[in-house]
């Protein structure tokens, strides 16, 4: 597209010092590995121009329950061998439903990725109610989730009054009925308040 791209590496919490502003910020799978993801999100918002767009990916408290259960079982066994034996047990299990979201993750199939999936040194999980409070208090407009069309159709059938599919209270009820729905992450778009670009 003829765009000039500048690559850089920095501490997300130090980005305010760059003095730069952006029309689009993408942060998938980063904020939930900070000690305080909300502080990281605020830092990113300070870099977003009014009317700018942000794509975020955050772990769901509800969807990560199988991961927490697996983590506890593996911790009992200890170390890399515990991960290996748990993976084999899960693969050979006659009823993998409690851990379906883990089995469906591509990270499950290599030791280092599985360690990251199940034992990341720092993991924070969010709820849709917390995200709703944050977006409201920071003048953000939820534009929607990135979801499979079939999921969106099922949601719209259940909540026809939510035409834009952006009511987080409705999504919270929908997630309660489908706890593995956001097994990867909540992936969603928001727009900063102010003049649209």
**Number of structural domains:** 2
Quickly name the level 1 CATH class of the largest domain. Answer: Alpha Beta
How many strands appear in the DSSP assignment?
A: 4
Note the quaternary state here. Answer: single chain
Which class best fits the helix and strand makeup? alpha+beta
Low-confidence stretches: none
CATH fold description of the largest domain = Rossmann fold
What do we call the CATH homologous superfamily of the largest domain? Vaccinia Virus protein VP39
- In DSSP terms, counting alpha (H) and pi (I) runs of 4 or more, how many helices? 8
Strand order in space, largest sheet: 1-2-4-3
Average residue-wise pLDDT: 87
Q: What overall form do the CA principal axes indicate?
A: globular
Proportion of helical residues: 40-55%
Reading the helices and strands in chain order gives: EHEHHHHHEHHE
Largest sheet: 4 strands, mixed
What percent of residues are in strands?
15-25%
* Rg result: 19 Å
State the end-to-end CA separation.
Answer: 19 Å
By CATH, the architecture of the largest domain is named 3-Layer(aba) Sandwich
């Amino acid at each position: 597209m003829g765009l000039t791209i500048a690559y850089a590496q920095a501490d997300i919490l130090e980005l305010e010092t760059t003095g730069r502003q952006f029309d689009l910020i993408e942060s998938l799978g980063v904020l939930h590995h900070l000690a305080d993801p909300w502080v990281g999100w605020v830092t990113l918002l300070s870099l977003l121009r009014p009317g700018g767009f942000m794509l975020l990916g955050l772990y769901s408290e509800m969807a990560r329950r199988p991961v927490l259960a697996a983590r506890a079982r593996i911790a009992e066994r200890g170390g890399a061998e515990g991960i290996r034996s748990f993976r084999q047990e899960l693969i050979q299990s006659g009823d993998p439903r409690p851990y379906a979201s883990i089995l469906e993750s591509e990270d499950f199939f290599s030791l280092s990725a599985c360690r990251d999936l199940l034992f990341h040194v720092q993991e924070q999980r969010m709820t849709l109610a917390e995200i709703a409070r944050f977006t409201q208090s920071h003048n953000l407009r939820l534009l929607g989730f990135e979801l499979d069309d079939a999921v969106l159709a099922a949601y719209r059938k259940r909540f026809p009054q939510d035409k834009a599919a952006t009511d987080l209270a409705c999504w919270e009820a929908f997630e309660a009925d489908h706890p593995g729905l956001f097994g990867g992450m909540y992936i969603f778009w928001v727009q900063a308040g102010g003049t649209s670009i």
